[in-house]
């Protein structure tokens, strides 16, 4: 009896298990369970992707903002360089405009305009004045005595500009002009006695002897010359050889003429009788040094067109930098709005 009951109970348990495992339609659709499980896995993957995507977006946005800041800094640096370049260009232009440079040129001529040689002999007397050529001065004949001359001389009396109503007398001699043939003027003066400690004759050079001839007021002309030109001297008992050179200076508003000179002094060997040596003798020679006239011009090296071109380039760079900064700021604002919109959408999906 017991054996039958146990066999029956085992059979019932086995049948129940078979009913659960081998129910009708168990093997009809084996992929149904997988299809039901697949949406769950897809949802879980999307959840994982959504959980992992915000850090990636955040890192990309940070990199974009970082590079944007770097670009803005670079453009600001370039803008500062452009502003400094504009300031330096304007300063350099003003500096060159107010301080022109000096340009020196030499012009070769065949002859000069005869200069004026104004001599102030005082108590001395002009004994002779003659033209010679090729540096050839003949030996002296009867030094200390009046001799025939061939110079053009004007005697001018005027009131000196630096003295209180003191009358001055000037002998103005027409200077040499033929520089190719080395024309020179040889003059001889004699001074009987003097109350001065040192005996010398002063002289002055001006550009054109014809200016004095054409002047209506010769006294005023000589007074102006003494105010504007330098004075030199040559001493008694010597032969002073003066070699002249002409310098023409052209300024911004006017033109000036200046004489430069080189002088050589040679002692006079006085062979006169002792009774005639009381008269001190002065000898002077005037000639041109060379056939070159020095021309000095003040040149403004500042080029306005070059400065304008540089400034145009600088202002174009500033305009481009301002335009880039404007577009960059607009792009930053647009990215900020998009980031806030995406963040709000994610918060709505979560809620």
Automatic annotation (TrEMBL):
Keyword Electron transport: no
Entry GO MF terms: chloride channel activity
TM segment ranges: 66-87
Annotated keywords: Cell membrane, Chloride, Chloride channel, Ion channel, Ion transport, Membrane, Transmembrane, Transmembrane helix, Transport
GO annotations of cellular component type: chloride channel complex; plasma membrane
Compositionally skewed regions (Basic and acidic residues) per UniProt: 1-10, 33-51
Protein's membrane topology: Multi-pass membrane protein
Domain of life: Eukaryota
Location of the protein in the cell: Cell membrane
Reaction equation(s) it catalyzes: chloride(in) = chloride(out)
Keyword Kinase: no
Family: Belongs to the proton-activated chloride channel family.
Protein name: Proton-activated chloride channel
Originating species: Etheostoma spectabile (orangethroat darter)
